[in-house]
Amino acid sequence: xxxxxxxxxxxxxxxxxxxxxxxxxxxxxxxxxxxxxxxxxxxxxxxxxxxxxxxxxxxxxxxxxxxxxxxxxxxxxxxxxxxxxxxxxxxxxxxxxxxxxxxxxxxxxxxxxxxxxxxxxxxxxxxxxxxxxxxxxxxxxxxxxxxxxxxxxxxxxxxxxxxxxxxxxxxxxxxxxxxxxxxxxxxxxxxxxxxxxxxxxxxxxxxxxxxxxxxxxxxxxxxxxxxxxxxxxxxxxxxxxxxxxxxxxxxxxxxxxxxxxxxxxxxxxxxxxxxxxxxxxxxxxxxxxxxxxxxxxxxxxxxxxxxxxxxxxxxxxxxxxxxxxxxxxxxxxxxxxx
Amino acid sequence: xxxxxxxxxxxxxxxxxxxxxxxxxxxxxxxxxxxxxxxxxxxxxxxxxxxxxxxxxxxxxxxxxxxxxxxxxxxxxxxxxxxxxxxxxxxxxxxxxxxxxxxxxxxxxxxxxxxxxxxxxxxxxxxxxxxxxxxxxxxxxxxxxxxxxxxxxxxxxxxxxxxxxxxxxxxxxxxxxxxxxxxxxxxxxxxxxxxxxxxxxxxxxxxxxxxxxxxxxxxxxxxxxxxxxxxxxxxxxxxxxxxxxxxxxxxxxxxxxxxxxxxxxxxxxxxxxxxxxxxxxxxxxxxxxxxxxxxxxxxxxxxxxxxxxxxxxxxxxxxxxxxxxxxxxxxxxxxxxx
Lengths: 338, 338
What we know:
The structure is a homodimer. By secondary structure, chain A is an alpha/beta fold. Chain A has helices spanning 27-30, 52-71, 91-100, 113-126, 141-148, 202-221, 237-250, 262-266, 280-296, 314-318; strands at 3-5, 9-11, 17-25, 40-41, 80-85, 104-106, 132-139, 163-165, 168-175, 182-187, 230-233, 259-261, 276-278, 302-310, 325-333.
């Protein structure tokens, strides 16, 4: 049974243990500077399937199955699958749930989904409901591009502020007990909307939510930023990361070198990928790959992972609406970090 | 802290109290046989807005605000908003969350969303996380029709097995304590897919999941159906309801007159609305309207509400996939029902 701190943060009494995680990525992600960290690198973005949508769900199924294999926990021992993706009606998640046959709760938080799912996994396990919760999210450049923007066959040049959807999937198995790292707390975000209307500048739309959730987390917990050795926003990209830093500085909070952004890192700053990576898979594969492996290697002891989502649709944009942003944060701490 | 029973069911130790609920419906729903039960009846399906999508979210905002007004609980006292709808990227829920400024977790369970959200509300409150959880879902005939099927201007005749999306929204305020009715338990469903491929026959696609979850609930709890005086599937319609009864009979379970279906009831069997109502709002407004009011009047003491979702998209149908069905169940019991 967790304890509420301040307005939006919960610290867990019996922190769930992250007993397994796997990242599966496509070739462009594998060729990026974080390539060494990913578990499975698939050369064919279509993963042998006939359509990009079928490929995306194959990435997700693979990530989930690889996670279970790595832990030796069987599908039948999982109490909940919490999953989501960017596609209309979260079909990648639902069709993956059909294959895995695990009680399924579908989520939509755009690129923040892995953080939303991790928060719920924490609530379920610390609340005493079940023993194992599997979290899985996916995204795919081709499926997102044709759903949100234009057919990829047009080969349009991306604006420098635009983000490039990560092809891949990440899965995480949280358990009631284990050797860590531990999910010690979460901050659930509110919508923040600074009236950004350009879907080619989602970093700017999400940055205010990221800053809001980070500030709320620090206020709710009474922690200084240096409680953490990593504060990672998942998928803001270069523009959103700069804006988040600027917004935090305005509030007197300077994160310095402990602040990193998954989107900005993913493609190594290549302008062909605009401002960097986005998509549900971005923060997920960076957490399952980079963060957890560097945590195991001793580089990080305590990480605050902030997933950010831009909750618009092509239709809301067409109807003149701005882009509501949201950010949820979760804390991973190594055994002995305290 | 709840207790797990069997494979998929959780009974709560400190059952949350449903301290408020409101149903808001459009004119066709108000004119149906359940019209007397609904709280707010809006004559204009566009609710004074310029587009159907903006109207749908106005229904949802109204339902949420009316629920809070009825209880005297302020938005700032709500720990979580759990909301979802049928639209791509659940824009009705996200834009409602922007207006309400409550920490927001977006869900997608198609027409089962109110049951999914109620289950999560139960886990959060019984788990000790927060004091008040607001659940809200919506659907709209015009938005669903043009997203899933054809422009409504074509005025196509519906197949008799097709369902007619309910225009409206329902909201529910669950609290840690109160005078009931109480949310005493939930059963979280798995995907069941009998390879139905016709989106004009969603009742048939969802019936196997409904039967599966009802059977699982009875097995997990060791209860006979007559523990309940109402078992209500939310939105199967006439075809799905008959198939669910038949599937249950095959397994030796006969529900008899305690079994009702919200979709079959909604429009009074008018063939102009095919097999009956569907959409996230269907089970929500029938629960907030009919079930809770008849419970307050003493007709029902214990109700098992089963929300059913068909987790396809137009794209999965175009790509030749069948329709994965899911059903989640939650139990409402009056004070003194035990």
